[in-house]
Amino acid sequence: MTSQQPPKPRYLEEDVLTQECMNLISSLPKEKGWVTTTLYKYQGFWHSTKQLEGLLSCQKHFEAQDTDILLITTPKSGTTWLKAILFALVNRNTFPLTQLAADDHPLLSNNPHTLVPFLELELYADNNIPDLSTFASPRLFSTHLPYVSLPNSIVRSSQGKLVYLCRNPKDTFISLWAFTNKMRLEEMGSNSLEEVFEKFCRGVSLYGPFWDHVLGYWEESLKNPKKVFFLKYEEMIEQPKLHLKKLADFLGCSFSSKDEKQVTIERILEICSFDNLSNVEVNKEGKLPIGVNCNTFFRKGKVGDWKNYLTTEMEARLDKICEEKLDGSGLKF
Ligand code: PAP
Question: Is 61 a catalytic residue?
Answer without folding.
Answer: no
